[in-house]
């Protein structure tokens, strides 16, 4: 995989790579310091993205990428991976800041360049809302985890499992299913949630201890079905992750041959920003998330030959799209590996409970216990991961805000 | 049992009606407080919403499956006998502890099962009747004790199973009661006199907070400036009931379920309260796309809403939660944060969005208002967000304070850019005060109204460590703000200097600089800017103005006076012809100057007087002496033509700088 090699662009159908090279040979067109800076930036972006490639993809590529992938061996779309992706964005943005600052230090930027930088900031601001939605999403996942953990830990108590514990576990799973159904409804898919909800109708319904005949108690019962409502998003009701991603990617087009200077870095940052936002939306529950996963919302693919970071970025995009299309993930509430595990383990536990006669003994009990142990492990991993993930999401948020504060957008005020 | 229950329910309802009189429920009263705050939400709407909710509730209620008849015990298969050693050990423990024999335990469980099943099957709230509630709680306490004993003994698995199963049914029922009591506290009976009524907190005089809520005054909407208010969403009696339930749930190991149920039950109240304050969720993008006028309106709503939420609503929720979960610490913390988190974050998001939006200088004042609101509540948040669960929320508030601070800094920087970029294309006519000077000076003067805050922000690191703002000496002219303002004045001066160059006439350039300089000095002197910039700066500026005035004298009147020079009168003296030539030159110059400079402007009256006087002082002596010498010269005769008498010249000088309009 030609991660850093775009010398071969003379044979490519894209003229930009060629013109970039020819520009490079023309010292009058671009001062050498600036040229070196810009080129280094492109290479750094490429290397940073290459490090995120899943092991298999990097294997065929150059040694640096493979080694990098081996270092961060965590699974694709795991919490750890998402955190590294966000970190990669932060690193790229910092470098971008430096590139712009240096360009400014060499002299006032032409108006067109200032406009491009401002446009990137407009894009980045759109990602702020994605960060907020993701923060809510992480909190929502935390609620799932709490309920799943109740179910799991009840069944892991020492001693035999008896009806009381099963009842309690069922109730926790039933509450969880309400949340999942709500969230899948919000993000427009079915999957485990619909399984759990039908499961609930079959077996959890009778487990509810609510009285139901009179109006007073009836009100209590109906409140109980709505009370585990999905969290109210701190976003406005009409906010859509899909629309937001489209806005972030809107008008993101590779610079034309005559656009030198900051055009390429600005474009690179736009692409990296879109990738990070897209992965975040894909990973955690967000309003209108399912539509966002569809690959046809992606901005035009960057020309591979012109930008060293294009191949790793495109590989990551492909992997994300594939992951979203996988049968067992298509209706998931989030592509995050930990969410997938939670869904799988919860379903397994629900099935084990369902199949279990009372009292439990022998294989059935082993099944339930194993499922509970598995779910407990999943919950633990999730608890450990969500806290730092949320912090990282906030970090990205504040970095974006700060990059504006620091006057990177000093020409902005004319906009309004 | 059912009939009995109905009677009690009726009696309860009558009691409620009596005690409440015509007043609405507590919750409604509180929502009313919030509604009054924002006139857009009428009580009519509120009632409509509640009626709709009630209709939905009763409509959907019938479907839930009754569990009442479902408590038949599963047939227990024979359990493998425990190993002899273990059984012996257990028996020894049991004997040593003096526990009742297993048969009596069986009897206990059977009795409890009978009792509890009745309660669990009850098709109305158990807490609608305090006697029922007490009996139910007592049965649960017995059951929890029994389960613990059975568990410790470990000898009768089947009985423990049965007790445990019974306990889980109690807990499910308790959770429903718990939620109902929190969501609709008025459905339950007031606590019996002498019960768990007094809540131990006497400081809520605001609402006359005694126990028994029937005769409590309705909370009154206080002026929004007074945030020293606590909302009691639940009456002390309800709190006592709810606390009793929470305690049982935690005792039975159902604390996490209890916390989740609590949060879910309170969240709708919190959501509704915030909605009533008239703030709606705004995404960062919306904020960026909005007109400033619109955002100003939003900020005007946001600040009091933020205060209401962080000073009243959230601390009240904290207090309620602390009471409900009194002595049940970690669950209360978990429940509290889950109840308030979303709404708190929504308010914070708006602050963040404003911070990250445009830095147009006119935004300074509203952003300062926001910053001050946030900064001022920071210390008060510590007791509310003291536990580890709410630490993240506390951190979000101080992070917002920080970003607002940086934003203020950024806006101030932007003023600098605005000045620097102000084009020098158009000159102020007649050398008058340039609009940029007026804008910047008035802006800075207004900014001085928030001097303390600006000092704080400029010193940096405000709230960065989550602490109180750094104390700064406000009268220190070397403070960051002072330095920054001096810098802005410098930038303004440079910009004016560039602008002065577009006047072709250097005299007019001097007048322009003088006018603007004088205006700057005036604005500095009659505001706190004087303190910030210091006497030294003012002295320097005054010197500059004097120098510009001298430049003017020199460039305009230098050649005039030199033309009038006739040398020392004693020695020789010029021939009359030369003197007449000088007079003609003077006339030409003077006419040119008068034509141009009578349209020039000196904005400051005193300065105008001074400048005219200075002109007179420099011109009149030489002119008068020339005229005198011409008059007294023998060579000039009667045909001496003097176009301007000295009096004329003085009169003309007095008409300089009147401006084009005059």
TrEMBL record, chain A:
One of its GO terms (cellular component) is membrane. InterPro entries: ROH1-like. This is Uncharacterized protein. Belongs to the ROH1 family. It comes from Dichanthelium oligosanthes. It is found in: Membrane. Keywords: Membrane, Transmembrane, Transmembrane helix. It is a single-pass membrane protein. Its main location: membrane. It comes from the Eukaryota.
From TrEMBL, chain B:
It comes from Dichanthelium oligosanthes. Component of the exocyst complex. Residues 75-84 have a biased composition (Pro residues). Keywords: Exocytosis, Protein transport, Transport. GO terms for cellular component: exocyst. GO terms for molecular function: phosphatidylinositol-4,5-bisphosphate binding. Residues 59-84, 189-215 are annotated as: Disordered. Residues 301-654 form the Exocyst complex subunit Exo70 C-terminal domain. This is Exocyst subunit Exo70 family protein. InterPro entries: Cullin_repeat-like_dom_sf, Exo70, Exo70_C. GO terms for biological process: exocytosis; protein transport.
């Amino acid at each position: 995989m030609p991660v850093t090699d775009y010398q071969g662009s003379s044979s490519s159908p894209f003229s930009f790579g060629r013109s970039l090279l020819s520009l490079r040979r023309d010292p009058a067109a671009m001062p050498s310091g600036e040229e070196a800076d810009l080129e280094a930036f492109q290479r750094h972006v490429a290397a940073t993205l290459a490090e995120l490639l899943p092991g298999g993809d990097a294997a065929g590529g150059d040694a640096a990428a493979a080694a990098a992938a081996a270092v961060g061996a965590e699974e694709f779309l795991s919490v750890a991976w998402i955190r590294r992706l966000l970190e990669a964005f932060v690193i790229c943005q910092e470098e971008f800041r430096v590139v712009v600052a240096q360009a400014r230090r060499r002299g006032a930027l032409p108006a067109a360049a200032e406009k491009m930088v401002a446009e990137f900031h407009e894009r980045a601001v759109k990602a702020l809302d994605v960060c907020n939605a993701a923060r809510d999403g992480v909190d929502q996942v935390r609620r799932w985890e709490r309920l799943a953990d109740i179910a799991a830990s009840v069944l892991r108590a020492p001693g035999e499992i008896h009806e009381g514990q099963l009842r309690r576990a069922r109730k926790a799973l039933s509450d969880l299913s309400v949340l999942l159904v709500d969230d899948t409804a919000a993000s427009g898919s079915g999957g485990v949630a619909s399984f759990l909800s039908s499961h609930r109708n079959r077996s959890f319904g009778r487990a509810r201890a609510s009285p139901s005949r009179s109006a007073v108690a009836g009100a209590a019962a109906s409140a109980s079905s709505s009370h585990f409502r999905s969290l109210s998003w701190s976003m406005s009701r009409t906010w859509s992750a899909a629309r937001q991603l489209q806005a972030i990617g809107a008008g993101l087009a590779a610079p034309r041959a005559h656009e030198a200077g900051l055009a390429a870095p600005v474009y690179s940052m736009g692409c990296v920003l879109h990738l990070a936002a897209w992965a975040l939306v894909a990973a955690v529950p967000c309003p209108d998330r399912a539509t966002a996963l569809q690959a046809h919302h992606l901005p035009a693919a960057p020309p591979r030959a012109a930008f060293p970071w294009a191949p790793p970025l495109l590989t990551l995009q492909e992997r994300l799209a594939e992951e979203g299309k996988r049968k067992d993930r298509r209706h998931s509430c989030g592509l995050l590996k930990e969410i997938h595990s939670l869904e799988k383990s919860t379903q397994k536990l629900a099935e084990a409970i369902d199949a279990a006669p009372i009292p439990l003994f022998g294989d059935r009990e082993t099944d339930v216990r194993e499922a509970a142990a598995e779910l407990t492990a999943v919950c633990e991993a999730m608890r450990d991961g969500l806290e730092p993930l949320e912090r990282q999401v906030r970090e990205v948020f504040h970095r974006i805000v700060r990059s504006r504060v620091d006057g990177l957008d000093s020409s902005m005020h004319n906009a309004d | 049992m059912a009939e009995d229950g109905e009677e009690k329910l009726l009696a309860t309802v009558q009691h409620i009606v009596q005690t409440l009189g015509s007043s609405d429920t507590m919750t409604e009263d509180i929502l009313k407080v919030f509604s009054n705050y924002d006139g857009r939400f009428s009580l009519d709407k509120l009632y409509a919403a509640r009626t709709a909710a009630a209709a939905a509730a009763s409509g959907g209620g019938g479907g839930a499956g009754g569990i009442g008849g479902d408590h038949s015990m599963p047939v227990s298969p024979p359990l493998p006998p425990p190993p002899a050693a273990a059984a012996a050990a257990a028996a020894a423990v049991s004997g040593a502890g003096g526990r009742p024999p297993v048969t009596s335990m069986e009897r206990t469980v059977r009795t409890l099962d009978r009792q509890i099943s009745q309660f669990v099957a009850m098709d109305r709230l158990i807490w609608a009747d305090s006697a029922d509630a007490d009996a139910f709680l007592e049965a649960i306490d017995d059951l929890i004790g029994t389960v613990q004993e059975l568990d410790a003994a470990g000898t009768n698995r089947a009985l423990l199973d049965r007790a445990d199963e019974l306990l889980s049914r109690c807990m499910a029922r308790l959770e429903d009661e718990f939620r109902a009591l929190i969501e609709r506290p008025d459905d339950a009976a007031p606590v019996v006199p002498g019960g768990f009524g007094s809540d131990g907190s006497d400081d809520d005089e605001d609402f006359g907070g005694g126990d028994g809520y029937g005769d409590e005054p309705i909370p009154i909407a206080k002026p929004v400036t007074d945030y020293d208010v606590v909302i009691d969403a639940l009456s002390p009696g309800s709190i006592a009931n709810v606390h009793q339930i929470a305690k049982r749930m935690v005792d039975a190991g159902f604390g996490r379920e209890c916390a989740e149920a609590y949060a879910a039950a309170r969240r709708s109240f919190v959501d509704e309260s915030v909605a009533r304050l008239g703030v709606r969720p705004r995404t960062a993008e919306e904020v960026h796309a909005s007109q400033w006028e619109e955002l100003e309106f939003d900020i005007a709503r946001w600040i009091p809403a933020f205060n209401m939420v962080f000073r009243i609503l959230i601390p009240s929720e904290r207090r309620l939660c602390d009471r409900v979960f009194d002595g049940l610490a970690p669950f209360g913390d978990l429940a509290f944060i889950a109840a308030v988190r979303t709404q708190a974050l929504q308010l914070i998001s708006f602050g963040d969005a404003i911070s990250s939006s445009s830095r147009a200088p006119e935004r300074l004042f509203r952003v300062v208002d926001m910053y001050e609101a946030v900064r001022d509540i920071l210390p008060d948040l510590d007791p509310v967000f003291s536990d580890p669960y709410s630490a993240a929320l506390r951190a979000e508030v101080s992070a917002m304070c920080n970003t607002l601070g940086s934003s203020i800094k950024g806006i101030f920087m932007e003023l600098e850019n605005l000045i620097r970029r102000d084009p020098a294309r158009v000159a102020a006519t007649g050398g008058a005060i340039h609009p940029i000077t007026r804008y910047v000076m008035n802006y800075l003067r207004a900014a001085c109204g928030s001097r303390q805050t600006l000092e704080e922000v400029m010193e940096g690191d405000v709230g960065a460590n989550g602490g109180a703002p750094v104390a700064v000496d406000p009268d220190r002219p070397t403070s960051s703000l002072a330095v920054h303002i001096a810098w802005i004045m410098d930038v303004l001066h440079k910009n004016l200097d560039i602008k002065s160059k577009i006047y072709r006439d250097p005299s007019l350039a001097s007048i322009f600089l003088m006018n603007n300089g004088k205006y700057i000095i005036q604005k500095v002197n009659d505001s706190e800017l004087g303190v910030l910039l210091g006497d030294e700066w003012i002295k320097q500026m005054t010197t500059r103005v004097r120098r510009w005035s001298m430049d003017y004298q020199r460039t305009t009147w230098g050649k005039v006076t030199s033309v009038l020079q006739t040398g020392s009168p004693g020695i020789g003296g010029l021939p009359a012809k030369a003197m007449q030539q000088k007079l003609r030159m003077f006339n030409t110059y003077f006419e040119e100057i008068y034509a141009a400079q009578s349209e020039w402007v000196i904005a400051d009256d005193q300065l105008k007087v001074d400048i005219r006087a200075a002109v007179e002082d420099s011109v009149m002596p030489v002119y008068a002496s020339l005229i005198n010498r011409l008059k007294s010269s023998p060579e000039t005769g009667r045909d001496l033509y003097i176009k301007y008498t000295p009096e004329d010249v003085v009169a003309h000088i007095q008409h300089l700088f009147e401006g084009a309009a005059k």
